[in-house]
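Following up on my earlier message about iron/sulfur cluster. Here are the inputs again, as you asked, copied directly from the submission form:
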Amino acid sequence: MSFPSHSDLENALFHCELCPLRKDAIGPTSYNGAPDSPLAIVGEGPGGVEDDYGVPLVGPSGQLLDKALGSVDITRDKVYTTNVIKCRPKNNRTPTVEEGVFCAERWLDEEMALVKPKVIIALGSVALKYLLAPDARITKDRGRWFETKYGIPAIATYHPAYLLRLTGKDLVKAKWEVFYDLKAAVEKCREAAPDYELKSPEPPDLLTLFSSRREERKQKRRMP
Ligand code: SF4
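Thanks, got it. Here's what our run produced:
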């Protein structure tokens, strides 16, 4: 299936009930940011806050991601952010590779066909395994470029949820690795789209931006 526009895709996505993950989530989450951006960030799947708001990476992981992106002069309104999996797995468990493939072949692939980014950042293991290979390992494969099936270069880095679990020297080391991975992505993006500005003067307040969607989803949750 291919969609003529992003709003057509989003409308169809919000009605998706194709796999069992849907029954434990409020609903599928879509994307946030700029569909015309040369840079796309692909995360794993929604957590509780993301399920409430219907958009990816707006909870604690999203706030840490904002800080990391800020360190390389990116604001979230200037990149396209999405997830491999659109419905929150029960108890926030990590989605399986099979669940990732099933959802991403239906939705992420369609998104990438519409957005056509020049560079992709794969955030964490689930995104890396879908975009590179099922046996890829984030500890081994982060920080190196690979070509995705879309013909778009991608680099993987740690998911912010992983950083939130680290402390001490491990956290400092991982933060620097993320910084250099993001810096490499920005450099490649600037080569591919030199006129595109990745930073806006005012970083967006994503929770306020999507507060009305949250209210709609709250109503939905109350429905029998
Ligand atoms: S996880 Fe993906 S495929 Fe499954 S119901 Fe949600 S949107 Fe549909």
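One observation from looking it over: The longest helix spans residues 168-192. Hope that helps, and feel free to reply on this thread.
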